[in-house]
Each structure stands twice: as C-alpha cells, then as structure tokens.
Amino acid sequence: MSNNLDLKKGLNIPVKGVAAPEVIKTVVPDIVAVKPTDFKGLVPRLLVKEGDAVKVGSPVMADKQRPEILFTSPVSGTVCGIVRGQKRKLLAVVVKASETQEYIDFGTKAPATAADTKQLLLNTGLWGALIQRPYGTMAQPDTTPKAIFVSSFSTAPLAADADFTLRESLEDIQAGVNALAKIAPVHISICKEKAASTLFHRIENASLHEVSGPHPAGNVGVQISHISPIQKGELVWTISPLHLAALGHVIKTGKLDLTRKVAITGPAAAKTGYVVALPGTPVKDLTQIEGDLRVVGGDVLTGENLGAEGFLGFFNDQITLLKEGREREWFGWAKPFRPKVHSSSWCYFSWLTPKKEYAMDTNLHGGPRAFVETKCFEDVTPMDIFPIYLIKACLAGDIEKMEKFGIYEVLPEDLALCDYVDPSKNDIQAIIQKGIDLMIKEMA
Asked: In sequence order, what are the residues at sequence separation of 6 or more whose Cβ sits closer than 8 angstroms to the Cβ of residue 168?
C-alpha cells in the first residue's frame, strides 16, 4: 500500500551548518549518563547505587508507577555517580565505562506474539522509545494502539540524514518492523523526492506513505493527522528509525547496541559531519566548544539546551551549535536593509535570495508583547486544525475548546514553526505543552 501526501503549508528555515555526509570521528566515552529527564511521564526509581557493576543492558532504574518499564545502561562498567537536582530530583545515573564491554544476552529468538514483543522492549530498556499519542508520553504496556507510525526522514533544520546514518541497518529495521507488527499495523512515511533510493522503500510488512513538502512535513504528528487522525479515546504509538533499528539489532544478535551516528551541525560548529557515539556521551567529547555558544540537543526549533557540560540525550541524533545572540542591534526592525536576517514574510529582502543560508544565533530581537492574531500560524501548519484558536484555548485552560480545536493531534514540535513566525514572540510550544499537561491532569 502506498499513499501520497503533498503538503503545501510550512517553512524551511535556511540555517547554515548542515552536516557533511562523512564520519569525522568515533567516540569511546569514559563515562555515560542515563537521564530520566529524557522520558516524559517517567517517575524514576533507582535500581543501582554507586559502586555497582553493570553490563550493557543491565537495568539502572525503573518507573515507580509501572515497575515493569526498565531503563538500561548503554555501556558496561561501574556506577560512579547519582546526580540529583532540587528536591532530590534524579537527573542522571553516571556509569564509568570499562575497557572490555560485557553484554546481557537477551536471546535471538524473534518475537512470536505481541506479548513477546512488549516483553523484549521492556527487558532491553527500549520501551521508553515508544511515544504514545495523544499527549506524547511513554506508551503504556497494558494498552494496544490502533497503529504504530514511523517517519523515516526529518525536514527540521539541519536534521540528520537517516539514509546515511542507517544505511547499513536495513535488516535490523526490517526485524524491528516485523516485531512491532505483532502489536499493531505499522505505517512508515518516506520522502517522496528520495522514494526510489531510500532504504526504507524496501521495508516489507508495513504500509508505506510518500510525503513531500516543507517542514514540518517530516514530523510524524503531521503525517498521522493526514493518514489516520487521532480521535478521542484512540491511541497511536510512534518510534524513531534509530530505535527501530536498535530493536531489530537485539532480535538478530541478542545484544543491546545504542550506537548511533550523531550529526554535528550549526553555524557555530568548527567542523560539521557525523560522530559515532552512544546516548549519554558527554557533549564535550562529541565536538569542539569554544566561546559563548549554545549547545542544542536536536534541531534549533525543538531541541534542548544541553550546555557544554551536558550529555547526549536518548532521542538525540543531532547536535546544533549556535552563537549566543546577546548583542543589541541598532534600529533593529526599522532598518530598511538587513541582508543577514531571514524573514518568513516579505518584510526584508531575504525572499530575493531563496537559496541563501544564514548564520543564525539565539537572539530574539525583542521580547514577548501583546498577542497579535494573524494568518501566519495557519500558513506554517499543514494540519486540519485551527492553531490560533487551539493556542488561545490552551492559554485559557478551556478543555472543551482544546478538544474541539485539535489538542489530541498535536505535540509542541508540530507547532514549533509558530514560534519562529510569531510577530508577538510568544513561546507557542510552551503554551501547547501547558495545555497538554492540563489534559493529562484532568482527563486521567
């Protein structure tokens, strides 16, 4: 089965610093961190203490509310630190890697039933890779989704190229698809422009959908809204190609291997390219960080500020380096000509050079101001929702209107472009997340 989705709305942001398609180094980390903050909805319970020896795949923490959900170590070694924040909130379990890596053997038998697949995901720590919609929380083991969705490509600024990072993982991806298909039908979206060459075109036992259009066409939430919109009471699961391949690797070898190619991107990157690393690797081991830079785990629209002393996240396959924009600009928007500034509208002359890339920084060029209702949100939201009314409903905390205007279909990432084009400079993603948190609290 193949469906074509040609999306017109959206915006590609021309940021400098795309990753060159080459591996520039391989990192063998001295320490790695398992971060519970990577998983939304997790209330962590420690299973280890400092000094404990662990193997690759050994559980280091579990979910207090659902103790069958385990989170495992990506390396073997010794637990050397338990990092806590305010009110003793668990921030990370730090493991010092040993010279020789030892692995938990999960067996090489392919799952025969849905229960077998779920148990394998729970045992290996890969259950956290399953995201449940609506609300974007971890999937619940005692539920069954109507479908499982995978987006094989990303249209986000400077995103990693999955065909490059996973080009040797076709068999692993197929094994992962076969296992997940025991639970629910699997839908994979591929880039229409690369349909003939992408490795995902050869995947069997799944429904393939060819998608074209500007960002956010690569967002799995946008694809779901056109393929099988989420109605009240329905559940769907999503998983990234990265973790789909990791699941297949466990099935084929019996060993957990979370090694990935991480794209080093951004206008402030000393050298762009791909670094082979594990989640939890210190950021300073991945790339050179000099000067006043912001280190973003992910893309510039939805990524997390990791900091120079942070660790690569469980879901990260991209690091973006940006200069901190602390300078004030003389006359600002009143300048008649600003060749170094990109505009999504015709306010400046960037529309005359559509192929130009910009060395963007973090400067907001002003602060939040009165909410101005314009058509700009609709122009960058290729979903059958009313973004301006949904945002207002979230601000008002009106659950009935949030349901009416599409809260079940979106996550903050799906409206990330609204942040970029908003003339009032409101944090739209934070507003949507506040609405989702209210729904979880009131509708649980």
From this structure: none
Q: Lowest-pLDDT range, 178-187, 233-242, 352-361?
A: 352-361
Bridge partners of 5, per DSSP, are 211
- Looking at residue 2, its pLDDT comes to 45
In whole angstroms, how far apart are CA 273 and each of 164, 165, 198? 11, 11, 20
Tell me what the mean pLDDT of segment 397-424 comes to: 95
pLDDT, tens digit, for every residue of 101-139? 999 999 999 999 999 999 999 999 999 999 999 999 999
Q: According to the 3-state scheme, what is the secondary structure of the chain? A: CEEEEECCCCCCCCECCCCCCCEEEECCCCEEEECHHHCCCCCEEECCCCCCEECECCEEEEECCCCCCEEECCCCEEEEEEEECHHHCEEEEEEEECCCCCECCCCCCCCCCHHHHHHHHHHHCHHHHCEEECCCEECCCCCCCCCEEEECCCCCCCCCCHHHHCCCCHHHHHHHHHHHCCCCCEEEEEEHHHCCCCHHHHCCCCEEEEEECCCCCCCHHHHHHHHCCCCCCCCEEECCHHHHHHHHHHHHHCCCCCCEEEEEECCCCCCCEEEEECCCCEHHHHCCCCCCEEEEECCCCCCEECCCCCECCCCCCEEEEEECCCCCCCCHHHCCCCCCCCCCCCCCHHHHCCCCCECCCCCCCCCCCCCCCCCHHHHCCCCCCCHHHHHHHHHHCCHHHHHHCCCCCCCHHHHHHHHHHCCCCCCHHHHHHHHHHHHHHHHC
User: How confident is the model at residue 188, as a pLDDT?
Assistant: 98
Note the pLDDT of residue 12: 96
